[in-house]
Amino acid sequence: MENNFNNGGFTQSDSFTSEQKVNALDTEEMQGSVQLLLADNVGEYVVIEFLIGNDRLVRKQGIVYSVGVSYVSLFDDVNNNYIVCDIYSIRFIYFYLPGQRPNRNYNGFNNNGGTCQNR
Q1: Each residue of 36-92: pLDDT tens digit?
Q2: Is the pLDDT of residue 113 over 80?
Q3: What is the extent of the structural domain holding 56?
Q4: Which of 50, 55, 95, 118 is deepest in the core (most CB within 10 A)?
Q5: Where are the beta strands (DSSP E) in 7-119?
């Protein structure tokens, strides 16, 4: 697979499509899983909350780029970078209607890394 950075964006020059990735997760064992739910929404904007330790939630947001058995990667279109996240730490996923985004970006380091209180 050859990856190219072009005009600040990421392009893939291979023929591996998101439909093929979804089909790889579309097995009897994966039916109803978070992985398949996210794979069905590749290209959609989400905010995901992850449980870190026993009581700390961390939010990350972006466009679902790819999904594997143990990870989800998001494209942060504001900061123009990719975030790879542990799928087993996910607690909540917020989906947005097309064209809608949250009022703030939780991916920055100046806002405590997107931490929120679980109280």
Answers
A1: 999 999 999 999 999 999 999 999 999 999 999 899 999 999 889 999 999 999 999
A2: no
A3: 3-98+106-117
A4: 50
A5: 9-12, 45-52, 56-67, 71-76, 81-86, 90-95, 115-117
pTM of the model: 0.70
Q: Residue 9: how many CB atoms within 10 A of its CB?
A: 10
3-state class of 106 per DSSP? coil
Tokens standing for residue 48: 């995901």
Q: Secondary structure of the chain: what % helix, strand, coil (to 5)?
A: 20, 40, 40
Number of domains present in the structure of the chain: 1
Total length of the chain: 119
Query: Distance (Å, rounded) from C-alpha 2 to C-alpha 49?
Result: 32
Q: What is the CATH number of the domain that holds 112?
A: 2.30.30.520
pLDDT confidence band for 103 (50 / 70 / 90): confident
d(CA 58, CA 53): 10
